[in-house]
Specification:
Structural class of chain A: alpha/beta
Distance between the termini of chain A: 42 Å
Strand order of the largest sheet of chain B: 1-2
Number of strands of chain B: 2
Helix content of chain B: over 70%
Number of strands of chain A: 10
Shape of chain A: globular
CATH superfamily of the largest domain in chain A: P-loop containing nucleotide triphosphate hydrolases
CATH class of the largest domain in chain A: Alpha Beta
Strand content of chain A: 15-25%
Largest sheet of chain B: 2 strands, antiparallel
Order of helices and strands of chain A: EEEHEEHEHHHEHEHEEHHH
Number of domains of chain A: 2
Helix content of chain A: 40-55%
Oligomer: heterodimer
Number of domains of chain B: 2
Number of helices of chain A: 10
């Protein structure tokens, strides 16, 4: 196993005007790990993903992908380096069929086919993997909320990434629909893909993550074992407030 | 709900040999037609071919990539003036001048595209319109090179003319060739990786970039390709007209016609702009013949109705109808209301 982490950031930060949306985030993810990223609203989780994938340029710090400095690189260069993502607000290609949505990602994958007919066939496999088999000829705007989330996931999988960043893929899903998503994430890990899961659904994070990173006000609050992190009074405090954390302490 | 096999089969047929057969028949038809109609009508049909080529060119950047170029005529005008100048002053053959004019327009498009294609929606549209209006003024103010407002004439006969005037039949064939070329390019783009990249950019640029599409390069290439096709058509138009003026060659009406044809026919498809160009030119000619006084009024009314009732264009409306079995125009308005 190689020692180079799939993703490493050093002092990564982004300032919007006078607001530090993300500041001084340093961490690394070894190959094959599932890292959960949690944090209250406005903690900078989505900004953090955007900084890694190049959709937002950092104002400070560095991003290394498999040891290579990719700070400030364009999103398509990061994608071609093997990093895929989903968007919190889903962004399907509405004018195309579901199958074509996936096929585009396959066409633009550096080692993938250049022929649409081949890409369309391969897209069916991806659709099958995420549970969208048989929906290929429909349009994204005809799908249910859960299926649109699956499509968002499938679009990220299409480029066969080595690192995948999932921005709240389980938001809005019913509890019964979360199970299959978690299985899919574990399946990715089994295939050697590194996964970063940003999520609001705590149960899901604890169930699937090897490690959890907590962001609060744009900074790393802590990183470690999921159960330990969630029991930490500092984490409880950022989520539920100072007084609640104190009371919890008194009770225990 | 799953797709029925019949739907798949009919789609496959529609995507493979039927269009090719129709295209070949149409070209044969056009060639037969040539020897059966008089000069005036040859010119009218050549104009239809010209607009087929122009609408296909606009469709690359405006339809596939979704960047509404309201200043597209600038490439028409620049291609035209490039040909006029090199034929008159440097005695170029038209057949050399025409592709060079396309390249000239393409390079210009790519240079202005780098900053302009960062703008979105109306901002891009207005900026390109500004470029076209500005370029007309530049041409007017360079009388030594372009003849300025007094116009410029291409040599068409005698020792100065490397290429002799083609005549009505020759231009008919030239514009037919350009139409075939542009429909071919459009077909290629609609099916290949580049075209799917443009569609993805059209629908969501961030998502397109996230799957590895170099959105800047794709957009600039699309703009360049669109300008290349437009510039060659402009060059041919100039040779046909012999004497040209900045007002006509940079006329915003030419852009408007391209956009109308693409939008009414169905943008982002190959057949849409083709039908749009054919339909609009035919209706326009028909009305001119039968309603001498009110023909522009009626044409305007038809266009307004078409845009309100089928804003996605005829071809996209039919495709959606076939898919959803829903042809009601009222439903259609509701689907596309703002």
């Amino acid at each position: 196993m190689s020692e180079i982490p799939v993703l490493e950031t050093r002092g990564l930060g982004r300032r919007f005007g006078s607001l530090d949306a993300v500041s001084d985030v340093s961490f690394s993810v070894p190959k094959g790990m599932i890292l959960g990223v949690i944090g209250p609203n406005g903690a900078g989780k989505s900004t953090f993903i955007n900084l890694v994938t190049g959709h937002i340029k950092p104002t400070s710090g560095k991003v290394f992908i498999e040891g290579k400095d990719m700070t400030g690189a364009a999103p398509w260069d990061i994608a071609r380096a093997g990093v895929a993502r989903t968007f919190q607000i889903v962004k399907p290609f509405n004018g195309m069929t579901v199958r074509e949505n996936i096929a585009v990602g396959i066409l633009y994958e550096p080692h993938g086919t250049n022929r649409m007919a081949v890409a369309l066939r391969e897209a069916d496999e991806v659709l099958h993997t995420v549970g969208l088999a048989g929906q290929g000829e429909r349009r994204p705007n005809e799908l249910s909320t859960a299926d649109v989330r699956r499509l968002e996931f499938a679009k990220a999988l299409a480029s066969r990434p080595r690192l995948i960043l999932l921005d709240e893929v389980m938001a809005g899903l019913r509890p019964t629909e979360i199970g299959p998503s978690l299985d899919l994430i574990r399946e990715l890990k089994a295939q050697g893909t590194t996964v970063i899961v940003v999520e609001h659904v705590m149960k899901a994070i604890v169930a699937v993550s090897d490690e959890v990173l907590v962001l609060a006000q744009g900074k790393v609050l802590m990183q470690g074992d999921p159960h330990e992190v969630l029991a930490d009074p500092r984490v409880i405090e950022v989520y539920l407030g100072h007084r609640y954390a104190k009371r919890q302490k008194g009770n225990s | 709900m799953t797709t029925t096999p019949e739907v798949k089969i009919s789609r496959n047929l529609l995507h493979t040999w039927i269009p090719s057969v129709v295209a070949v028949l149409a070209v044969i038809g056009a060639l037969i037609l040539k020897s059966h109609i008089p000069g005036g009508e040859l010119r009218a049909v050549a104009t239809i071919f010209m607009f087929i080529a122009l609408s296909q060119a606009w469709n690359i950047i405006g339809g596939f990539a979704g960047y509404a170029s309201f200043g597209q005529v600038v490439f028409f005008g620049m291609g035209g003036y490039f040909t006029a100048v090199v034929m008159l002053k440097y005695h170029f053959s038209f057949w050399v001048a025409m592709p060079l004019s396309g390249l000239f327009a393409a390079v210009f498009a790519m240079l202005i595209g780098l900053p302009l294609l960062k703008l979105k929606g109306h901002y891009f549209a207005i900026a390109t319109l500004g470029v076209a209006e500005g370029m007309r003024e530049v041409v007017i103010n360079l009388p030594d090179l372009t003849g300025g407002g007094a116009g410029i004439s291409v040599p068409i006969a005698g020792t100065f003319a490397k290429t002799q005037y083609l005549g009505d039949g020759g231009f008919y064939l030239l514009f037919l060739g350009l139409a075939i070329f542009s429909v071919g390019i459009g077909t290629l783009v609609s099916r290949n990786k580049f075209g799917y990249g443009l569609r993805a950019i059209h629908q969501n640029e961030d998502a397109a970039a996230a799957v590895g599409i170099n959105t800047v390069r794709s957009k600039v290439m699309a703009y360049g390709l669109s300008a290349f096709m437009t510039g060659m058509v402009g060059a041919s138009y100039v040779f046909q007209q012999v004497t040209i003026f900045p007002e006509r060659l940079f006329d915003v009406e030419i852009t408007v016609l391209m956009i109308m044809m693409v939008v009414i026919g169905g943008s982002g498809t190959v057949i849409g702009p083709l039908l749009g160009a054919l339909g609009l030119q035919f209706i326009s000619e028909y009305l001119r013949e039968h309603f001498t006084s009110g023909h522009t009024f009626i044409l305007g009314l038809i266009i307004i109705l078409a845009v309100i009732l089928i804003p996605q264009g005829l071809v996209n409306y039919i495709r959606e109808g076939r898919r959803t079995k829903q042809y009601s125009l009222l439903t259609n308005i509701r689907r596309y209301r703002l």
